């Protein structure tokens, strides 16, 4: 077991490099970006994430989702961490980002600031925390290139609301990802992030309300179970359901087995096993975890450098929750951080 995992890690690394080192390098990104300026960075992030994971393994899916919600709208620029006016967190798709994981990123960055002041972006701390959390949960090690800068403003509502919705069918998902230059393979692999973590009833009640939906088909026993569980969701939003009921806390390929057995939780998940453009790859991922890990790593790196800010663009935020200009104007900027709205 141990050695096959090690071998898997090496293959994933090699692949991520082979496919992605050139576009990333062209933008000035590199895994060694902070090797001279902040050699302690890796250790600081790793120890914070390990401690948080011991306390609550739910931090791993929470971080992976934050990464997605940061990167998809306007590139990985930590704009999702900004609080206050026009915050992305106030918009629909982001309402269920877990506050404890947002706060963890703030805390890790504060620790990094104390060691390497004004050097490391909140965007890169988000990427590194995601990398370490994924590994903690059993997923692949992804050697992300670094050197991102932080955005000055939140993404517009239009961009945030362009995040895909769980009610989307496969053609709409393909269109949504295509608008961000992500292909069908990226869609099938990245959806595999739903192999851990949870969803709330409003995200999947369209599967059984007003009737048990046959498109895509849901297992009848599974539908009844969800129906009964969500009947108790009072007040709305208190009940959660594992996205992968087989191994809810582990990052593995069993999400794709759920799709085959008609126990995919979201409509957007279940559809992948029916549509001719996605069915083959979803089946292959169910059969071979290494193939899934390789494609997932590849697509995560791809997402991590789209529309990225580098060089003198953006800034290195001092407090992840507020742009530096606002922090300078307000003495108690820290009060606006995530600790305040837990
Ligand atoms: C393909 C389109 C996608 C749709 C429609 C979608 C939708 C959703 C929804 C509705 C939830 C549950 C929210 C809730 O009710 O609390 C969720 C959770 C989650 N999503 Fe996605 N998502 C998509 C893609 C992705 C991608 C690309 C990633 C990361 C690579 C991702 C990672 C996650 C994770 C890890 C969770 C669990 C979060 C937690 O436990 O806190 N999703 N997603
Ligand atoms: C938010 O917007 C209001 C009204 O435009 C303004 O008065 C306030 O200073 C803004 N707050 C921050 C933190 O920028
Ligand atoms: C993709 O972009 C086009 C053009 O802006 C838009 O009409 C379409 O709704 C987008 N697709 C999705 C699913 O967001
Ligand atoms: C899934 C989810 O949380 N949906 C909510 C998103 O936010 C809007 C309002 O901002 C709510 O109406 C949705 O129910």
Automatic annotation (TrEMBL):
Binding-site positions, Ca(2+) 1: 70, 75, 77, 79, 88
Annotated organism of origin: Triticum aestivum
Cofactor(s), names only, from the UniProt record: heme b; Ca(2+)
Gene that this polypeptide is encoded by: LOC123042902
Subcellular location: Secreted
Comment on bound cofactor: Binds 1 heme b (iron(II)-protoporphyrin IX) group per subunit. Binds 2 calcium ions per subunit.
Catalytic activity: 2 a phenolic donor + H2O2 = 2 a phenolic radical donor + 2 H2O
GO cellular component, one term: extracellular region
Domain Plant heme peroxidase family profile, residue spans: 28-324
Pfam family, one: peroxidase
Active site, renumbered: 69
Residues engaged in binding heme b: 194
Similarity section: Belongs to the peroxidase family. Ascorbate peroxidase subfamily.
Name of protein: Peroxidase
Record's function text: Removal of H(2)O(2), oxidation of toxic reductants, biosynthesis and degradation of lignin, suberization, auxin catabolism, response to environmental stresses such as wounding, pathogen attack and oxidative stress.
A biological-process GO annotation: response to oxidative stress
